[in-house]
Amino acid sequence: MGGSRRAVEEAVDEESAEEQDLFEDAVDSGTDGIEQVFRKMAAEARAWSLDGELARNKDITAADVRGLRSWCRENKVLPDIGDSLLVAFLHACRGDAEHAKTVLRVYESVRTKTPEVFTERSVHCEEVQRAKGIGYFCLLPKKTPEGFRVMVQALRNPDPTHFVYSSSSKAQFLTMDAAVLAEPTAEGYVCIFDMKGVQLSHMWAWGIRLPRKIFKYLQEGLPLRMQRIHFVNTTTLMDRIMKMLRPFINKELTSIFQFHTSEEEAGLHEFIPKDCLPADYGGFLPPLEKLQGYTDTFLAEVDSLLDPQHTEALAGKG
Questions:
Q1: From the centroid of its chain, how far is CA 128?
Q2: Domains held by the chain: number
Q3: Is residue 211 helix, strand or coil?
Q4: Is 34 within the bounds of a domain?
Q5: Where is this region: Disordered (predicted)?
Q6: pTM of the complete model
Q7: Distance CA 176, CA 179 (A)
Q8: Mean pLDDT taken over the chain
Q9: Are 303 and 312 spatial neighbours (Cβ–Cβ below 8 Å)?
Q10: Coil, helix or strand for 258?
Q11: In a domain, 263, yes or no
Q12: E strands, 213-275, where?
């Protein structure tokens, strides 16, 4: 984290700098401009091409992609995987093809064995809509100075009797997958988990089998670079929650955890500037309620890319 903010910003690649400029224009022109940022992300997801990515990213070659695709087909690991995901895995593993193969195996294994989270996914499906009635699953429009994309998850209805962990996870990973589609070679991701309203009853709803698979996926199967995870509005309950999570998480994951009580908001601002945060956390962006609407617009525009077969099935019922 060393060096001045200006120096860090200068290190962000040209494409990221263009996105920052677009956001600054958005602030000047009001919320319609912020919506343009999300529409630009959706357009990039739809227009993504391997040739374009290779021209932008010199760390990955066509030979790298061909080699990983051949391995997938020979070993029957996601044999029909798209080029954008292959690039995402190579980027997440910093070009290490052997590591990428290991991550790919976990990615396929967990997603195959967890259909309640990773199948029949659409922003319009009943389960995802129900989850969004209980919580926020937001992408933020402005990256951090390091070029990291920020995602926020928070409760909007704290009643634990309405909370379903599988539905919440489905909405969470749907949003994350959409972000990877838009930018397979993103510099990194930062997650904010808001603990306001969280009770032990929410944890009991997890069960044992599902969180074990979900945390394995988070630690070993993500096609992205997870840089930090911030828990905000924490209370003394957080100690008990961490004890419950201990069987599922390793030291590598806990090393990127940061905890902030409601009185320690300034601590969050040391990592994420106010102009990158929603008003809910003392930032200059619109509140989560508004940002969820922008995120949902983005998800709707890339919906057919996330789960084409399910989308076609829904269309056939119309």
A1: 15
A2: 1
A3: helix
A4: no
A5: 1-23
A6: 0.86
A7: 5
A8: 87
A9: no
A10: strand
A11: yes
A12: 226-234, 257-261
Which token pair is 31?
């919320």
What are the φ/ψ torsions at residue 141 (nearest 5 degrees)? Answer: -75, -20
The letter for the amino acid at 172 is Q
Pairing label, strands 226-234, 135-139: unpaired
Residue 199 lies in a domain: yes
Cα separations (Å) of 233 from 101, 134, 257? Answer: 38, 18, 14
Chain Cα centroid distance, residue 259:
19
Q: Contact at 8 Å (CB) between 178 and 44? A: no
Secondary structure (3-state) at 54 = helix
Which pLDDT tens digit goes with each residue over 237-279?
Answer: 899 988 888 888 999 999 999 999 988 878 899 999 999 999 9
Residue 132 token pair: 């969004």
Q: Find the CATH number of the domain harbouring 156.
A: 3.40.525.10
Q: Examine residue 2 and state whether it is found in any structural domain, yes or no.
A: no
Gyration radius (Cα) of the chain, Å: 19
**Which of helix, strand or coil describes residue 231?**
strand
Residue-level pLDDT at 18 = 60
What local confidence, expressed as pLDDT, does residue 29 receive?
45
The letter for the amino acid at 35 is E
**CA–CA separation, 173 vs 167, rounded Å?**
10
Structural domain range at position 249: 116-306
Q: Which residues pair with 228 in a beta bridge?
A: 190
The pLDDT tens digits for 115-168 are 999 988 888 899 999 999 999 999 999 999 999 999 999 999 999 888 989 999
